[in-house]
Design a protein that fits this description.
heterodimer; A: mainly alpha; B: mainly alpha; 11 helices; 0% strand; elongated
């Protein structure tokens, strides 16, 4: 790692808190644009069927700190967050930070499984599809990419449940714990990133295979597979690495829906429950948490890209 | 070095032809054409069905008829009935109308914001540009469906709120593209000439810059509709948007969840409808992009 790389890393790490502050401010503002009084909603949820009295609402508003001005509320939220305290859920009255921590492992397992599956299919399919352009395999791969981009994950999830759990009874439909239970949700989640990666790898592979250094490798007498895997793939994968952020977005957005369907006790399920019950502290904590994860993953992907592609390294910019 | 490169370049055509004959390129070119045609057909069908839905001789999509609940497909009920005895075919057809209205509203809202932010940023430059693009970069890093989910959750359940939420998060990427085009157009000679003869900012924006934005906007919009339909149906599926008994595809899927074992068609039919609509717009969008912007005639991006 050169000096230019180090300076880049430092600069990126320095802007990270600013970005997080910005996203949390935006989400805080959006949440507070909402009509209705959160305190009143909390009371309605705690005592269903009863109309809360004005005195009760006022007392809870004070308890939750909702009587303070908006900037004061935000300042309190930020200082709490810096101390690791994201507040309490309105619904369960549990600390938000602990809930997020508990839900992280299932979501990480599910998204990692889905990403592995997507890569396992997309990389070989993308390479072969580019090498044998116009072949049946290429057409099939492009069809999968086309369909994968258009199938709603929720419809696919139910299709998989109906086929493999209801009709064939091969796999459990819902639940969390055994390895068999991860299969269906991971497949449902993997299709969108798989389609996107396949398109990307195919396109960049086609471009790379036309480069001069590939011709040189071929002229050296290397086999077509040695050229593809040893020479072309490294460059062809760069756009896929660059698209990490996009794919992470697919995975996390998809996880929200897939987890709900498969009763997967992850972050997505927590977010949907919180959004449906307007549990603001959980939604706010979730958004800040996801923002941090996304920014960190993007940073790692950018660094990986810079290490893999010397043209991007800032230290070499002058050449 | 130079002679090496010359050497490789000379030999290259032979190798290239040996690898992928020209005929195959035409073949894939032909493959693309039917795709666009299929996309056009699907989109046209959706538009027609959605437009005429209220005047078709169909049962009321919200009409509850408990004696006929979970009726399998028959002559009377083409696609059967749901758990409340409502005609599934009628609900799917009316769902097309909901989908179109929702997608059009979201597109209009997000494009308005994107145009305003993009043109303001690209035309004014300076600190306006820095500030606006700072916000755009901020939001661009964040998964839009999750942000829409947060906004929709904050606003409370309802289709209108979901559209508001989707429109409020979808503009971000487009604003950046429009800014880039505006920035380029502002520096062209015809804009400089217009300014020299004393044209005002509004006149320059509407008469000289807007036309160069139009083409890319059409391409972006057509490629975008599929995503918007998927996203909105997803939010509706999660229960944040259209509420029962509204005939909306995502909400229908949500509604049918408990009948997974007894009537899987209630889940598969709306799912297929969403798939066909999204596929149609994606295919049409790809075709339009190739037509209007030949520079991007490359699969992938």
């Amino acid at each position: 790692m050169g000096a230019g790389m180090m300076a880049y890393l430092v600069r990126r790490l320095a802007t990270l808190p600013l970005l997080l502050l910005g996203i949390s401010a935006v989400s805080f503002g959006l949440l507070n644009l909402a009509p209705g009084d959160p305190a009143e909603m909390v009371l309605r949820q705690r005592n269903p069927g009863q109309l809360p009295s004005a005195v009760e609402v006022e007392a809870l508003r004070r308890e939750l700190g909702l009587d303070a001005s908006l900037p004061a509320q935000y300042a309190r939220w930020v200082s709490g967050t810096l101390a690791g305290d994201l507040g309490q859920s309105y619904g369960t009255e549990q600390p938000v930070a602990a809930q997020l921590a508990r839900r992280t492992v299932p979501t990480a397992l599910l998204t990692a499984g889905a990403l592995a599956l997507a890569l396992l299919v997309a990389v070989p399919a993308g390479i072969l599809s580019a090498q044998r352009r116009g072949s049946l395999l290429d057409i099939a791969a492009r069809l999968v990419a086309l369909v994968g981009a258009a199938v709603p994950s929720y419809a696919l999830a139910y299709g998989l449940i109906i086929l493999f759990a209801v009709k064939l009874s091969w796999l459990p439909a819902v639940g969390y714990g055994s390895p068999a239970q991860v299969v269906l949700p991971a497949v449902a989640l993997s299709l969108a990133p798989m389609a996107q990666l396949m398109r990307l790898i195919r396109a960049s592979m086609l471009e790379t295979l036309g480069q001069d250094y590939i011709r040189t490798a071929r002229a050296k007498g290397l086999s077509e597979q040695a050229v593809a895997v040893g020479h072309a793939l490294r460059n062809a994968l760069l756009p896929a690495v660059a698209a990490t952020g996009v794919n992470l977005g697919y995975l996390l957005s998809g996880a929200v829906i897939v987890e709900t369907i498969f009763s997967w006790p992850g972050l997505g399920q927590l977010m949907v429950e919180a959004a449906l019950t307007r549990d603001y502290p959980v939604v706010q904590g979730f958004v800040a948490y996801i923002a941090m994860v996304v920014l960190l993953v993007n940073l790692v992907a950018d660094l990986a890209l810079r290490i893999a592609d010397p043209r991007l390294r800032f230290g070499h910019q002058g050449m | 070095m130079a002679s090496d490169a010359e050497h490789t370049r000379e030999r290259a055509p032979v190798l290239a032809v040996g690898r992928s004959p020209r005929r195959r390129h035409q073949w894939t070119g032909l493959l693309r054409e039917p795709g666009t045609a299929l996309g056009l057909f699907l989109v046209a069908s959706l538009l027609i069905v959605g437009l005429v839905a209220p005047w078709l001789p169909l049962d009321d999509p919200t009409d509850i008829n408990l004696p006929d609940r979970l009726h399998p497909p028959s002559a009377e009920y083409l696609l059967g009935t749901d758990h409340l005895g409502r005609d599934t075919f009628s609900r799917i057809v009316h769902g097309a109308r909901m989908t179109l209205v929702a997608a059009a509203a979201t597109l209009a809202l997000s494009m308005t914001i994107a145009l305003a932010v993009g043109i303001l940023s690209g035309y004014n430059g300076g600190w306006t540009d820095t500030a606006l693009m700072g916000v755009v970069d901020l939001l661009l890093a964040f998964p839009s469906l999750i942000l829409a989910l947060a906004v929709a959750g904050a606003l409370g359940p309802g289709l209108f709120n979901v559209l508001l939420a989707a429109g409020a998060v979808w503009w971000v990427g487009h604003a950046r593209i429009i800014r880039g085009i505006t920035l380029g157009a502002r520096q062209t000679e015809y804009v400089i000439a217009a300014r020299a003869v004393g044209a005002g900012n509004m006149r320059i924006i509407f008469r000289h810059i807007a036309p160069s934005i139009l083409g890319p906007i059409i391409v972006i919009a057509s490629l975008d509709v599929g995503w918007i339909i998927l996203g909105i149906a997803g939010l509706n599926f999660l229960g944040l948007g259209a509420q029962p008994p509204t005939p909306e595809w995502g909400a229908m899927l949500n509604d049918a969840r408990q009948h997974l074992q007894t009537a899987p068609r209630l889940l598969l039919l709306p799912g297929a409808a969403i798939f066909l609509a999204v596929l149609g717009f994606n295919l049409l969008g790809d075709g339009l992009r190739d037509l209007l912007d030949p520079r991007t005639r490359r699969p992938g991006n």
